[in-house]
Amino acid sequence: MFSDTVDWDLIETHLPDMLRVVLSIMAGKISASTILRKLSTNSRKNKLFKAFHALGSAVRTGFLMEYIHSAKLRARVQGATNKSESFNAFVQWLAFGDMGVLRTNDREKLRKRIKYNHLVANCVVLYNVFEMSRILNQLAQEGHPIDPAAISGH
């Protein structure tokens, strides 16, 4: 797991080029997917790719060490993972047509179907939040006490 060492010299040598790539992406001059595709071509020979890979390894290792050390971070990651899995299960439950089974190899059709399904799921979530907020506001106006702990979701 921790067998390799980070090539800090490689990162330092290519840092100006790496920063230019990041600034170009941030400025919208090039997309991240385009730069990844260009960098990964002949990646074993591409020094800039190796420098980004080394930096990524250092960042991942730092995160992993913090994750191992911090119970609070582990709980946060677990909570976010649970939310994501819950949303995916909701999307699956909500799926319409062919029982949610995607029966095509057409990448564009698959993307559309998934995006439309996520749109429907997000609309349902938005509607529920709107209705719950409306009802809670109505109850508060009628003088009913609203306990923040009861609606916090914790």
Secondary structure blueprint with pairings:
Elements: H1 8-27, H2 32-40, H3 47-69, H4 71-94, H5 107-141, H6 148-151
Helix pairs in contact: 1-3, 4-5
Features:
single chain, about 150 residues, mainly alpha, about 75% helix, about 0% strand
Domains (count): 2
DSSP helix count?
A: 6
Radius of gyration of CA atoms, rounded to a whole number: 23 Å
Q: Termini separation (Å)?
A: 35 Å
Shape: extended
Strand-residue proportion: under 5%
Question: Could you give the count of β-strands?
Answer: 0
> Which stretches are poorly predicted, pLDDT < 50 over at least 5 residues?
none
User: In terms of structural class, how would the helical and strand content be classed?
Assistant: mainly alpha
Average pLDDT rating:
88
Helix content: over 70%
The biggest sheet amounts to:
none
Helix and strand pattern: HHHHHH
Q: Could you explain the architecture of this structure?
A:
Helix 4 crosses helix 5 (107-141). The protein is mostly helical and 154 residues long. It is 75% helix and 0% strand. It has 2 domains: 1-69, no CATH class; 82-154, no CATH class.
